[in-house]
Amino acid sequence: MTPSDPVTGTQRYAEPSETEPEIPLVGGDVTEGVVRVGETVRRPIGANAPLVHALLRYLESVGFQGAPRLLGIDAAGREVLTFIHGQVAARPRPAWIADERRLVSVGEFLREYDDAAAGFTLPEGIRAFQGLAAPQDPDRPPPPPYPVELVGHMDVSPDNIVFRDGRAVALIDFDLAKPVSRVDEVQNAMRFWAPFEDPADRDPLLRDVDVPRRCRILADAYGLSDIDRSRVVEVAVLRARRIWFSMRYIAQAEGGGWARMWEAGVGDEIKRREAWLERNGAAIEAALTAA
Description:
This protein has 8 helices and 9 strands. By secondary structure, it is an alpha+beta fold. The chain has a domain at about 95-290: Aminoglycoside phosphotransferase (APH), C-terminal lobe (Aminoglycoside 3'-phosphotransferase, Chain: A, domain 2, Alpha-Beta Complex). The protein is globular and about 60 Å long. It starts with about 20 loop residues before the first strand and ends with a helix.
């Protein structure tokens, strides 16, 4: 019987007889050491791995095709996942990042994922992801006050969506997955794809887009409920306030890419995002709720 990893319970990966070279994969901000080996991806095991591994096994069991398959843990102690072919909007962003047809496909695909994930329950002994900020921080705002509906991906960035033939077909990098409401998951996608940023901080290709319009397109494609549409701005502002504390803490505690982002001014960017949302929230809500 193949031994299992003692932390995640995931079986060891049996390497094929023919070895293949490791090709570094880049694109995200903080996960280092990700490589492609043949038709597999090797990633360091993160703090959220027990939940992520259980979620990926569940998605495979229900036939959801839009996530990598977990194959095991290799001899170097890394996750082994199937490689998903397609396009990812890595930096510098491609010209199609502002394409509204792709935006529609993001909303439609995210709904497919959330519907599939809604049937997943945390196995006994696996704790939900507690976030990145020190739990004793008294100044950090509470999470959004809405009921948990599913284990969301919660990092629906251009770096983490795979496209084929102009349509979103898969999510990768589930490190931030956790139990959330649907409105929380959708506002996370809007953060990156609308985007919820001060124009000074947006990618040049998204600097002049109509953000309220793009929010409406994404919400319609997802099929977001009327009550959740009225909550989007509230949840987005609250998440911006929380993530400032999260980023400050993890930059100090973990260093690496997190520290580089903080030193580059991500904390100031988050504050600008919060202020921009407060200035433009009424217009976004009006676009989302208009008949």
